[in-house]
């Protein structure tokens, strides 16, 4: 099988896989990807602005498929969620990320926290909090150094197990971030249901702060971000702007009162081998 173009997956015979076939092949292969060591993590800094100091590293999972090459998490995470593999995949991510965090902490970056993405389906697992506690214990990384990023991709309200998991990890001392803020369900009310300490503004809003955008849209995203800054200040939350790519965007965000940012402007997701160099550079400059 061969990858062709952005979303095309072509067999060596030349047959271009349709959506269903592609999904089947990826699901089949994903079942073995973990044991075959095809998954790996990259880490992207979250920085204070305007000074650009790294305060956290977000673990982002990658899949090096033997035939398709690099498959994006946007493609395989939903598959893992649909076929029940997300539990073991998520556990592997947490374990591997905590191990890496143990190494950067030992190398002198003990103040840099770790953020790990968690699927809503993981929070529905009965022993999620116990699993997190066990992995923390094994890694020696303190609970306060860990942040779990939760999206509002599916509506979590009223799920008893989810609140059990959330209470459980909070009791451990682990932090919660609300990821992709503004894109999902009842955003502001969600801040009431979930004991989050960090809110991440989705990059669609950051994108429309500058550049060739309709004036009404630009006014809207500015107003939204300014309101978020005010809400975060009142509730004592940290606000992180995602997907910051240009100095113009950073200037706008800083003018609106943002104090944390993540994006290619500061650093792309990095393999662990490049982390210490990057952290050293970013801490000194
Ligand atoms: P996310 O959690 O919103 O992660 C941010 C995504 O934006 C990442 O894509 C990152 O590489 C990308 N990004 C960072 N800075 C910039 C920028 O300046 N410009 C642009 N255009 N993009 C930027 P990635 O790594 O492809 O991950 C996509 C999504 O897959 C993540 O979105 C997250 O929802 C999910 N994901 C990744 N790793 C995991 C994981 O271990 N577990 C779970 N459950 N989901 C994961
Ligand atoms: Ca995230
Ligand atoms: Ca996000
Ligand atoms: Ca996202």
Description:
This protein is 46% helix and 22% strand. It contains eleven helices and twelve strands. The strands form two sheets. An eight-stranded mixed barrel has the order 3-4-6-7-8-9-10-11, surrounded by four helices. Helix 3 runs parallel beside helix 5 and helix 5 packs parallel to helix 6. The protein is globular and about 55 Å long. The mean pLDDT is 91. Bound molecules: ligand C2E and calcium ion (3 copies). One calcium ion binds next to loops. It comes from Deinococcus metalli.
> Bound compounds, please?
ligand C2E, calcium ion
The structural class is alpha/beta
How far is the N terminus from the C terminus? Answer: 45 Å
- DSSP summary, beta strand count: 12
> How many helices?
11
Major β-sheet strand ordering: 3-4-6-7-8-9-10-11
Give the topology, please:
Layout: E1 2-4, E2 8-10, H1 19-33, E3 39-48, E4 53-65, E5 69-71, H2 73-82, H3 86-106, E6 113-118, H4 120-123, H5 128-139, E7 146-151, H6 160-172, E8 175-181, H7 187-193, E9 198-201, H8 203-207, H9 215-235, E10 238-241, H10 247-255, E11 260-261, E12 270-271, H11 272-284
Parallel strand pairs: 4-6, 6-7, 7-8, 8-9, 9-10, 10-11
Antiparallel strand pairs: 1-2, 3-4, 3-11, 3-12, 4-5
Ligand C2E is lined by residues 44, 59-61, 72-74, 77, 90, 93, 117-119, 179-180, 203, 243-245, 263-264, 269.
Tag the structure with descriptive keywords:
285 residues, alpha/beta, two-stranded antiparallel sheet, 11 helices, 12 strands, globular, binds ligand C2E, binds calcium ion, EAL domain-containing protein
